Structure formats: C-alpha cells, structure tokens
Amino acid sequence: MQSDSATASAWTGLIDGFGRKIDYLRVSLTDRCNFRCVYCMGEDVTFLPKNDVLSLDEMDRLVSVFVGLGVRRLRLTGGEPLARKNVMGLVHGLSRHLQSGAVDEITLTTNGSLLSRYAGDLMAAGVRRVNVSLDTLNPATFRAITRRGAIADVLGGIHSALAAGLKVKINAVAMRGVNEHDLEALMLFAHGLGMDLTLIETMPIGAIDGDRSDLYLPLSEVRARLGDHFTLDDIADRMAGPSRYVRVRETGGRLGFVTPITHGFCAACNRVRLTCTGQLALCLGQDMFVDLKAPLRASEGDDLLRRAIGDAIVCKPMGHNFVLEHLSHPTVVHSMSVTGG
Ligand code: SAM
Ligand code: SF4
C-alpha cells in the first residue's frame, strides 16, 4: 500500500528511486544521553568526540537545505535532544520555517527527563507534539531499563508538557521478561491522560550489553493478551507512519504497534535521518550513510549540499532487512542514539 506522500504527482521535492516522496527528516542532535536504556546502548558506551558532532549552526543550515528541498516535517531526536546545550536556540531558529509555512511541524522525541524545564519554551517556539519514551510505570523496572533514570522526572515532564498544551504520545519498547506485564497499566495511564501509546518491537540496531533476542517480544503476543481484556478496533490512520493503530473501545484511546520484525512497513516510507555527525542515514535498518558534513563545510553556498542530498535520496533502499537472527548479531552497527530514533 502506498501513502499519500508516496504517490502525490504534483510533488517537486525529493523522490527516491522507488518513487517515494521524501518529506520527513529526523535529526539526531547528539548521541549523548543521560540514560543508558538496555535495548539502546551499553552501560559503558563511549560517546563520539564532541568535535565530530555538528554545531547547532551547521545543523540549522543542513536542515534548512532539506526544507528548501521540500521536507515538511522535522523531528528532533538523539541521543537525548534536550541534553544538547542550547537546544532551544536551534528550535527557535528552525521555527522560522513554521512561521513561513515551509514546514508543517517540528516535533521532538525525548526520554522526558528534562521536559519540565523545556515544555513551555517548546510550545512557545511552535512545537505542538512530543513523543516521550516510557517503558513502564514501575519505578524499579524503570530504573533497571534506563540504568540511571528516575521515573518521577519523566512523569513530571509529561505533566508539564500536557499543562503547556503539548500533545504527548508515549512510546514503549515491549520486552520479554522486563515490562511485558506493565503494558496494560501503561496504556491505561496514557489513555487516562488523553495520550496515544505506541508499542515498539526491539530492533537489532547497535551493540548493547547482552543479547537482544532475550528481550524480543513479538507485538502480536502483546496484542493478543490485551485483546483478552479490551476490545481493539483497527483504525486506518494515514499519518501513522510505521505504526498500525487500534482504538481501544473501553478507554477510547489509540494504541499503536510498530512491528519491524514481524511486519514490514517500508513501502510507504517517507523519511530519512540526519545523524549528529552530518551523515544522511537513508534507512534506519541499514548501515547506508552518505556524508553531508564534507559538502556542508566545503563551501558557504548550498549547491554542493543540494546535489549531494539529491544524489543520496535516489539510493534510498527499498526497505530494512531486520530479521529475528539479527537480534543476537545486529548488522546495523550504529546505535539508534547516533542515527536518531
Ligand atoms: N532519547 C530519546 C528517547 O528515548 O525518546 C530519543 C532517542 S531514542 C533512540 C528514540 C526511540 O528509540 C525511543 O523511543 C527508544 O525507546 C527507541 N529505541 C532505542 N533503541 C531501540 C531499539 N534497539 N529497538 C527499538 N526501539 C529502540
Ligand atoms: Fe537515551 Fe533514548 Fe537511548 Fe534511552 S532510548 S538510552 S533515553 S537515547
């Protein structure tokens, strides 16, 4: 099935080699994070040298070139985007594209721990939606998953975001033997506050301590279990990206499933990612990067960059090649925190 974005014929922006319209850019502002989630990175992870990471001015320039090429949706992520120094300087700068109408939205994916501090500023800068990653409501399990996070900070961040008027979606990675029995409570919490909940299967991206196949929990199983207690009505949502959504009749809330391992979702892919080092990641599920830092720094004009981006986009692969076996031996070596989850 092809989405609107994949089929629009009047589109003059970026189109990949499979005819998919690319109008969504996710930007990793930093690989650094104040958490060490067990499925994302090792406890003793070595972060990139700061000199390898683009300055915020460089990020602004690069993102703005994408906007000039037709990108209409921006998502800031990481690592932990709110841990990047002067993050609001970048957000305020990019908000000019909202004001001019060049982009439809700027959104953020965050672990929520610093959200209390920034929620009001984000809203004032024109951000209207944030995704907060929260895998459990159980403080001890939360601590075990994040290795260093305090759940009270995240819950405080969520409440601040809602109070500021931001629309909040909760993302949770479902893990066998870790949070599988916490997901119902998480759903009731999210829906009780008017937030969507999206469940995500563990993906084989980057090295972690241990073996991801121990954590892997197919969402078909989670869905079946929730279906024992709730009525899950399928809904078609064209904006859903890789999520398949159901409406939970008893709560009235939406529940999404991102199932890269059990189902493909690549045919309607409209996105690329910019790493914090200025590499264009053509697909989250493949180590295919095109260097944009060199053309960025090679001249003050943007022609080189525009050409490099156009050449890269036509090489976007048809899809990821995640398979169960990769959970133990990820073929994608870059962590999601570098590429931008
Ligand atoms: N630090 C922010 C956060 O946690 O929301 C933004 C970056 S994080 C890499 C983005 C999302 O990727 C989070 O929802 C996280 O749970 C998810 N994630 C990280 N590693 C993953 C993996 N191996 N498989 C599935 N989801 C993963
Ligand atoms: Fe940090 Fe997000 Fe990775 Fe957790 S998932 S370690 S919060 S980047």
Structure overview:
By secondary structure, the protein is of the alpha/beta class. It contains 11 helices and 12 strands. The chain has helices at residues 4-7, 56-68, 87-99, 115-124, 139-146, 151-164, 183-192, 219-229, 293-298, 303-313, 336-339; strands at residues 24-28, 73-77, 105-110, 129-133, 167-174, 196-201, 232-235, 244-248, 254-258, 271-274, 279-281, 289-291. Strands 7-8-9-6-5-4-3-2-1-10-11-12 form a 12-stranded mixed sheet. Helix 2 runs parallel beside helix 3 (87-99) and helix 4 runs parallel beside helix 6. It starts with a helix and ends with a helix. Mean pLDDT is 90; it is low at 1-6.
Sequence of secondary-structure elements = HEHEHEHEHHEHEHEEEEEEHHH
Ligands, deduplicated: S-adenosylmethionine, iron/sulfur cluster
Structural class: alpha/beta
Assign a percent range to the helix content. 25-40%
Strand order of the largest sheet: 7-8-9-6-5-4-3-2-1-10-11-12
Distance between the termini: 24 Å
Could you say which overall geometry the principal axes of the C-alpha atoms support? globular
Ranges where pLDDT stays below 50 over 5 or more residues in a row are: 1-6
Mean pLDDT: 90
Strand content: 15-25%
Q: In angstroms, what is the radius of gyration?
A: 19 Å
Oligomer: single chain
Number of helices: 11
Number of strands: 12
Largest sheet: 12 strands, mixed
